Amino acid sequence: MAATGEIAAIAADGGDPRFPPEYQGPIPPSNRLLHDPKVSFYEYTYYAKLTRQEEEDSFRTNPPTVGLMQVLFPTKSAGGVTPINVNGSNGSGSDDKGISEKKVGEPRQTIEISEAEWTNASRAVRTASGSACFYLITTDILGPFGVGFSMGCLGWGPGIGLFTVFGLLAGYSGWLLWNVFLGVDSYQFPAKNYGDLAFRAWGRPLRHIVNFLQGLQLLISVGVIVISNGQALSQISKFRLCYAVCCLIWAIAGFVIGQVRTLQKFGILANAAVFLNLLIMFITMGVFAHSPPNYPISVLGSAGGVVNPDTITPSNATGVNVYANFTQPPIIHYNGMPSKDLTVGIFGLMQGVYAYAGAQLFVEFMAELRRPRDFLKAMWGAQFFIYSCYMIYGCYTYFWQGQYSYQISYQGVSPYSWQTVGNVLAVISGLIAAALYGNIGIKVIYNNLLMEWFHAPPLITKRGKILWSVIVPIYWIIAFILAASIPDFFGLTGVTAAVCFVQFTYTFPPLIALGYRIQKHALQEGEGFDPATGVVTLHDHGIRRLIRGFFADKWYYNVLHVLYVIGALSVSGLGAYSSITQLISAFEIPQLNAFSCTSPLNLG
């Protein structure tokens, strides 16, 4: 006999307590609680199919015309997805506020919010284009300035090989997230962030884990960029400006740029950031070929400092300043692993993983695309572009600087004038990237904490916009304090990469895809969601259903995903161990942090 879901049980009991007693029938999407556990996986997929079909019909009817200039310089959209009629209007509704000041997910709102208003609220935020998404991805991931350092820790062969493998896997993970997103996202039940995919594939526990790690990762990422920009500014000022002030300036700048709420507007900034990063690469490549490395700061974060400090220690040094008269060891390259200590190679690899960490924001990018199917082209184009930049720039840096390759390559050039040029350009692009991280980080907190627990108004409302403007400076201050408290900058990035970045790029995508495939293929004849009654009919539950879903329809993909998850967790564990080992060593020596006026780059 067919068993029914919880929705059917509610209907059988005479209706949901969120509705007036006289109400009978299925609960419409507009009256669901946020992340309602009573919404079945099959209800999500039902509405997702309707949304994808509508998108395809709209695309065939009005195909976009995109020229070269639109690709290079994507402009702000005229609006979101075309709204549907409300009471015979053009979509704006009879109520000027529409959904604006109404509490989403609150009880007894059947009369307050119509289905048209609800879906139009979801459509309104889908404003980004595919080309804007390309620049958002490259802005988020494009960080080639540490690849030379990673190559110095790994050697030519392992470095090129691992970066290639991890790049391909990052692209595959992006494809997995895209596939799941298309299967569960809809105008009725929009998937707004990474945690939403985890929730719909595996339920509440994984969602809470994902949201916590994503919030922590983005917070640390903002703080790391604030600190790196502070170091750049201190180097520009020749250390005459208090280091704490140098960092605080960028935190305050984040108060302003963080007020941008939509990713479409960030697309305009993002393409500028990509061109700035490319300009930094071209400039530093020219300087590398015509000047020696920045020997003094090599002790602070070069590959040789991690692999073997003797390879960067000057000999015949005299006087108080050991760099006044010295013989510097020659540049060294390694074909294989330069150290027998596995933690050294893993530490270098974590810096590379940090560079491929953009998958954490892929769902947020897709959630604001007018046509989510366009994400795949933008993602693969961005991945190929990023990988090419990594390989060319990383190998070039390692060739010219060898074991002196500094973790932030543009600070590793010796002429002060070119240091300044690189630092000025980098702080601008870095601030844009930090604002992007902050934007998504605040949305994760807003959607999953403030709206769900404290019933905050939607961000498209006036009250929501005011609340956003208040949260932004608080978020940036916390990020600054957190990063400033940890003196070892490179150890912090390594731990963050191992604990958070590896999960979002390599662990969670196959895990979420596994849950999605199991539930999708466990469906039998006569099962599914009935929109007329709101009933979800299932013939069985529990382990039997999981096993059937696992071995149905190309079960070997599920086995592959299980192995993928195990491998990613292994890399994460090794990375965390090696990075924490580096942090422990750093804390044994008195270190400078961002609460001091003395810059850690000032060796004089």
TrEMBL record:
<keyword id="KW-0812">Transmembrane</keyword>
<feature type="transmembrane region" description="Helical">
    <location>
        <begin position="132"/>
        <end position="157"/>
    </location>
</feature>
<feature type="transmembrane region" description="Helical">
    <location>
        <begin position="555"/>
        <end position="577"/>
    </location>
</feature>
<protein>
    <submittedName>
        <fullName>Transmembrane amino acid transporter protein</fullName>
    </submittedName>
</protein>
<keyword id="KW-1133">Transmembrane helix</keyword>
<feature type="compositionally biased region" description="Low complexity">
    <location>
        <begin position="1"/>
        <end position="14"/>
    </location>
</feature>
<dbReference type="InterPro" id="IPR013057">
    <property type="entry name" value="AA_transpt_TM"/>
</dbReference>
<dbReference type="Pfam" id="PF01490">
    <property type="entry name" value="Aa_trans"/>
</dbReference>
<feature type="compositionally biased region" description="Basic and acidic residues">
    <location>
        <begin position="94"/>
        <end position="106"/>
    </location>
</feature>
<feature type="transmembrane region" description="Helical">
    <location>
        <begin position="492"/>
        <end position="514"/>
    </location>
</feature>
<feature type="transmembrane region" description="Helical">
    <location>
        <begin position="342"/>
        <end position="363"/>
    </location>
</feature>
<dbReference type="GO" id="GO:0016020">
    <property type="term" value="C:membrane"/>
</dbReference>
<feature type="transmembrane region" description="Helical">
    <location>
        <begin position="384"/>
        <end position="401"/>
    </location>
</feature>
<feature type="transmembrane region" description="Helical">
    <location>
        <begin position="239"/>
        <end position="257"/>
    </location>
</feature>
<feature type="region of interest" description="Disordered">
    <location>
        <begin position="1"/>
        <end position="31"/>
    </location>
</feature>
<feature type="domain" description="Amino acid transporter transmembrane">
    <location>
        <begin position="143"/>
        <end position="520"/>
    </location>
</feature>
<keyword id="KW-0472">Membrane</keyword>
<feature type="transmembrane region" description="Helical">
    <location>
        <begin position="209"/>
        <end position="227"/>
    </location>
</feature>
<comment type="similarity">
    <text>Belongs to the amino acid/polyamine transporter 2 family.</text>
</comment>
<feature type="transmembrane region" description="Helical">
    <location>
        <begin position="421"/>
        <end position="446"/>
    </location>
</feature>
<feature type="region of interest" description="Disordered">
    <location>
        <begin position="84"/>
        <end position="106"/>
    </location>
</feature>
<feature type="transmembrane region" description="Helical">
    <location>
        <begin position="269"/>
        <end position="289"/>
    </location>
</feature>
<feature type="transmembrane region" description="Helical">
    <location>
        <begin position="466"/>
        <end position="486"/>
    </location>
</feature>
<feature type="transmembrane region" description="Helical">
    <location>
        <begin position="163"/>
        <end position="184"/>
    </location>
</feature>
<dbReference type="GO" id="GO:0015179">
    <property type="term" value="F:L-amino acid transmembrane transporter activity"/>
</dbReference>
